[in-house]
Amino acid sequence: MSLSSRAVLVSKAERILTQAGTPQPRAEAEFLLAAAQGVPRTRIIAFADQEVGAEEEEVFWKFVKQKEQGVPVAYITGEAEFGELVLHSDRRALVPRPETEELAQYCAGLFERGANPDILDLCTGSGCIALYLAAKFPRARVVGADISQEALYLAAENARLTKLQDHIVWRQSDLFAQIDGTFDLIVSNPPYIPSGDLPGLSAEVHHEPKQALDGGEDGLDIIRQIVAVAADYLNSKGTLALEIGAGQADAVCSLFDGNRWDGGVKKDFAGIERFVFARLKN
After folding, report:
1. Which residues contact 19 (CB under 8 A, 6 or more apart)?
2. What is the phi/psi pair of residue 236, to 5°?
3. Taken in order 60, 101, 118, 235, is the CA torsion positive or negative?
4. Do 100 and 54 share a domain, yes or no?
5. How many CB atoms lie within 10 A of CB 188?
6. Rounded Cα distance, 165 and 167, in Å
7. Does residue 219 sit within a domain?
8. Torsion angles phi and psi, residue 113, rounded to 5
9. What range does the domain containing 27 cover?
10. pLDDT, tens digit (0-9, with 9 covering 90-100), for 57-85
11. pLDDT above 70 (res 1)
12. How many domains does the chain divide into?
């Protein structure tokens, strides 16, 4: 039996995934082949003529079949990159998004190098933001909280994977219910998709936990709860940083009392008003 090259397999998979409506069929085919072979995607591209062993090809086509059914690549491969971190990813939490990585980068920019801030990551999910900030600030006190115990198990696995388990405390909590103390930064990527929009989302998103997506009728139910009490959990001039949905910036900003808060909106890499940063005035 003759073996196929990487280029041939990627092209075949690209055609299949295009028909399935995958947004980036070639890139995802390359990622899946890289995962099947246990090599970086760059090697798939750079050494496209290399033949693929029969067992690796079998694994690859199993991956492609899952992708054809709309399963996110990160759930298929079990991995997601977030900054310099490589994390486990599965159905217990949302796949870490590039825009959430931007949020973490903005948050890191709030502090001087070597700082030791107190940080709370609400709705931590896979733990990606908490882990990113713990890696940037080894002297920080970081708490990652989520209502989902399953998500926290995944976050704890990621802490061990990245050797950051001694830098973060995980807390099962319905927002602030089980949170003690105050913080210099509260950051959150909360559920913010309006309930009525959920059925129309991509097949990939339907594989992710609904609890981490559904923000109620207008998408702002959880955000309202966070903004209403966040000041009680912030130190003087502490910051609340939120990821929000497209078109929600004005509504979210209106939730803040201008007598207590300063802040504004930051755009993501696509030019969408995606983040709200609000700082206590005193």
Report:
1. none
2. -55, 130
3. negative
4. no
5. 24
6. 5
7. yes
8. -60, 135
9. 6-69
10. 999 999 999 999 999 999 999 999 999 99
11. no
12. 2
Nearest alpha-carbon partner for 154 in 126, 174, 173: 126
Helix (H) or strand (E) holding 199: none
Task: Tell which residue, 71, 211, 75, has the closest CA to residue 151.
Answer: 211
- How many whole angstroms separate alpha carbon 223 and alpha carbon 225? 5
How many CA atoms lie less than 13 Å away from 83 in the CB half-sphere?
A: 20
Measure the CA–CA gap between 127 and 165, rounded to whole angstroms. Answer: 11
Tell me the two tokens of residue 248.
Answer: 């929600």
Report angle CA 98, 102, 103 to the nearest 5 degrees.
115
Are 74 and 88 in contact, with CB atoms under 8 Å apart? Answer: no
Output the six-digit token pair for 279: 């700082």
pLDDT of residue 23: 86
| 66-69 contact pairs (CB < 8 A, 24+) | 67/17, 67/20, 67/22, 67/28, 67/32, 68/16, 68/17, 68/20, 68/22, 69/203
- The verdict on residue 74 lying in a domain is no
8/29 Cα distance (integer angstroms): 11
Question: pTM for this structure?
Answer: 0.93
CA 246 to chain centre: 16
Average pLDDT across the chain, whole number = 96
139 and 210 in one domain?
yes
Tokens of 40: 């970086």
Q: Are residues 117 and 231 in the same domain?
A: yes
Please report, for the domain that includes residue 274, its CATH number.
3.40.50.150
Averaged pLDDT for residues 155-170:
98
